[in-house]
Amino acid sequence: MTFEQLLQYIFSGLTSGSIYALTALGFTLIYNATGLINFAQGELVMLGGLSAVGLYQAGLPLPVAFLGSLTIVLIVTVLFQQLAIRPLLSRGVLAQVIATVGASLALRTAAMMIFGREALPLPAFSGDTPIRIFGASLNPQTLWVVGSTLLIVLALQLFYRRTLTGKAVRACAVNPLAARLMGVSYSNVVLLSFAVSGAISAAAGVMITPISFMTYSSGALLGLKGFAAAALGGLGNPVGAVVGGVALGILEGLGVGLVSSGYKDAIAFVILLLVLFLRPQGIFGGKAVEQE
Amino acid sequence: MSGGTSSRVSRFVPRNWSFAVLAVAVLLVPAFTRDTYILSIFAFMATRFMVVVGLWLLLGLAGQISLGHAAFVGLGAYGSAILVTRADVNPWLALVMSAVLAAAIAGLIGIPTLKLKGHYLAMATMGFGEIIHILLIQLKGLTNGTDGITGIPPLSLGPLNFSDPRLYHLLVWVVALIFFLLALNLTNSRLGRALQALRRSEVAAQSLGVDTSWRKLQVFMLSAVAASIAGSFDAHYVQFVSPDSFTLNVSVILVCSVVIGGFRSVWGAVWGTLLITILPEIIKRFNEDAVNLVFGLLIIVIVVLLPVKSGPLARLQLLLRGRERL
Fold first, then answer.
1. In sequence order, what are the beta bridge partners of A120?
2. Residue A136: φ, ψ to 5°
3. Complex ipTM
4. What range does the domain containing B203 cover?
5. Tally of structural domains, chain B
6. Phi/psi zone of residue B154: left (φ > 0), alpha (ψ -120 to 50 degrees), beta?
7. pLDDT digits over A96-122, tens only?
């Protein structure tokens, strides 16, 4: 492998890695608030991408379609949280997990009925002319994806570290009971976590669609990879989610270069199993991976 | 366990008449109909019943979700199809070999994930399901890609040829009923009691000497074997396999059937199987695509409205009488 090729694989790994990082963050926010793995997370990413395609094809300008898609996914997520998760908060995690499994099937099928079975594209945010760096070509969309990811991560950090609401959310992640005793509304924290998680996932979906297209069935693999990234970094750790996502993306990019692109999607699964085998708490030691 | 011979025998005798009634009713079906359409619905119901009972053991007893059971069915179906049509292996031996492979893979996925608290198994099995689906399409030399494998011979045993739908009905239902009986008795076996204990409190079960992750692994492997055997039967019955039958959506619908029947007793699997067999036939008349949408929403509605641990009869009462909590 030449240096140019290596750089090329790293660029493409960085792009998909950013998407995995955002999806992993989506998992982390909900997991920290409720201890729940949301099996519809990948479907939220898919819905974000397809909603933007739908709005764009209806004639709206791209930025408006982007915001519109965020709004749609936000509404879907909040509705799901209020109608299904809220009544189940006192009934244990298993019932909630089953509800998210049902939601994933319902969203996948609804998307198929609305948008059809074809893989749909979206134009790149600022043209397709590649930028040459050290002989490797960089897709301008990559800059959008990586830049927006950085921005989202920074904004989240500010929110969770500096604002009172953010601190209340973190308090709930550490100890929900103690947080409630201090006057934090647990159900509002859960609602907020779902809302932010939905919006981030939708953004990830819109940004990746110009590069790899989107179909109704893309959600499962995106969700799986986001989860593998979260587990790699340490489930429940937001920094771990971002590092895990980027690491997974680059490993996948190199794997495509070294092995074969046919098995690209298997890499995340193998990494997930290896992490759970060797270091279930992930690189940074997740919050609540308890071994029996 | 008080392992006297008499208690061992009594465990294989059904404790109530319900099983006998169910067994006689389904085994008498061929006496009343020769309609191949109706018989084919019953034949698929039998294999689906096996998968759902296995999944019930995993979900209802051990509280673990698998989102990859359609892939285990696929493993059995393709295992039988490939071994029989390409390597000329005896169909029964192929069925056993595929089941052993399914058990081995279940072990590989279960060992790391079932040691952990939480729903790692669900995510890992979902990944496994996606990989299997990709492999079934990609490994064209072995699986013939999206076209699938045709010409799988029907099962036969000595002079009996099970290409006769009524004979096949008896065979597949006897197998399914034996497995159901096994599951009924398993609930009250050492394994079953260990799983019931760990579902209530994992720590308490451990302190009483239950190796909880090993018990969960056992039941996961058992459910994978049941799914694989069901897949082998289907492959020989339809004489054709293709990747479309083993998707994530199918896995979720299988979970749905367990949720419909409730986690209280294995009998929930009977109602769940009935519903996932009959409901699609009705919805298809209006809109074929809507089947999965209805199932997805049904899971949410049921889990929100009904306690997961209630049994099928309690659920019917709840629905009829309104929302009194049992």
1. A214
2. -95, 150
3. 0.88
4. 34-247
5. 1
6. beta
7. 999 999 999 999 999 999 999 999 999
